[in-house]
Amino acid sequence: MLLSFRMANHRSLRNEQQLLLVPGRGVDDPDGAGQEAVPVIGLFGPNASGKSNVIDALVYMRNLVRGSFRESEPDTGIRREPFALDPAIRKHSSTYVVDLLLEGVRHTYGFSVDDKRVTEEWMYSYPQDRKSIIFHRCEDEYTEDDSPDSMRQVQEITESNVLFLSVAARSRQVAVRAVYNWFAGVLDRKPMAMRSLRFPPIIEYFDRPGYLGRLTSLLRAADTGIESAEIIEETEAEFAARSAGLGGAEGYPGQRRKDILFNHRGERGTFALGLRDQSLGTRALYELGPPVFRSLDRGTPLLVDELDSSLHPYLSAQLIKLFRDPATNPLGAQLIFSSHDATLLGRIQGEEVLHRDHIWFTEKDECGVTEMFPLSEFKLRQDEHRDRRYLAGRYGAVPIVNDEIFAAALSARGKAGDVPPGEEAYEDQP
């Protein structure tokens, strides 16, 4: 369970920022009574304010933990994305730190890296609230409390551009395994607009017993018009013929593949349509289904950039509710998402979507530096319409639009009759 995440010198996050997931005092959250960490965090703010960079920083940390031992060759340096708008800061190390609660014991793990090496790395645990140094690495020098000889052997083979945690976990060191396993379980989803137009190979996931039914229930609850779904197996030629509306294609050669069909209710019964015939909203639910199910089933974090992409606010609210409700989230899975949808700050169908300590804002200053702050910093009335006040700019983290420049940019066409290069294709044809 994630308690907090700190990051510095990552993209627009120049100065250290902390995302705190510990429930705030005095927050009215009957569902989360007794929880050590909140199950949901929503990041809100204008375009290019750094919401995605917060999620990207945690994804980067996960990827380096999982992949540095496998992917980093000796003396090849470390790939990173420091703050680019200040040459002096760009040379500084980038830092990432998580505080975790694992099996009832708090752990802290973090590292700092520059373009060449790991400059510092540490892991502490706090059994019975007493600090124990599992390891502390300063460049290639290590200190620890009562580590076994096998841990010291791992230190000797760890390259300067590789995380010690990655090597120790691969070497089956019990002391680091719980933290490594937490990183291995972190899931993430990017906005649909940033992914390939080819559909992801997740048919096999729904081919497991019970999972296709869960997807169907999710789609039916979303009022998509889908009654049921089925997985079929066919050759590429059969798939091409069916997609073209030609019916079967028996006898065509080719490797067999699985596909999913959705049965839509119609005036004269149900009709089967493939994934490519579905709306963007249905496709978004289809893609979000597997990571949501896996996160809830395993009690692991799910990071979603632009949760509201192609989704109606009602559907976004329902996905959030799955994580907030202990009945559907008994293992303590956590959802961290970014969104532009201000309706998620208020009530939908009379129910509050997010509590105060679930909401964080990002905004960027005139030098391109992102700052994060929680809604709980503001004094709020119990009946306050947070969505309206946010859009009115009461909390900050909204774009400052120059109406005159905006209108001029849209209306400028150059001389009368001129057509900008490349725009000819958009002109009306006779």
Describe this structure in words.
It is a single chain. This protein has twelve helices and 18 strands. The protein is α+β, with helices and mostly antiparallel strands and 430 residues long. A seven-stranded antiparallel β-sheet has the order 2-1-4-5-6-7-8. The protein has a six-stranded mixed β-sheet with strand order 9-13-14-3-17-18, with helices on both faces. A three-stranded antiparallel β-sheet has the order 10-11-12. Strand 17 and strand 18 form a beta hairpin. Helix 1 crosses helix 4 and helix 4 packs across helix 5. It is globular.
Q: Could you spell the SSE succession in H and E letters? A: EEEHHEEEEEHHHEHHEHEEHEHEEEEEHH
Termini, distance in Å? 62 Å
How many distinct beta strands? Answer: 18
Name the strands of the widest sheet in spatial order. Answer: 2-1-4-5-6-7-8
Please give the share of residues in helix: 25-40%
* Poorly predicted spans: 196-201, 246-252, 425-430
> Given the helix and strand composition, which structural class is it?
alpha+beta
Number of helices: 12
Report strand %.
Answer: 15-25%
Rg over C-alpha atoms, rounded to the nearest angstrom: 25 Å
- The coarse overall form would be globular
Biggest sheet character: 7 strands, antiparallel
Mean pLDDT: 83
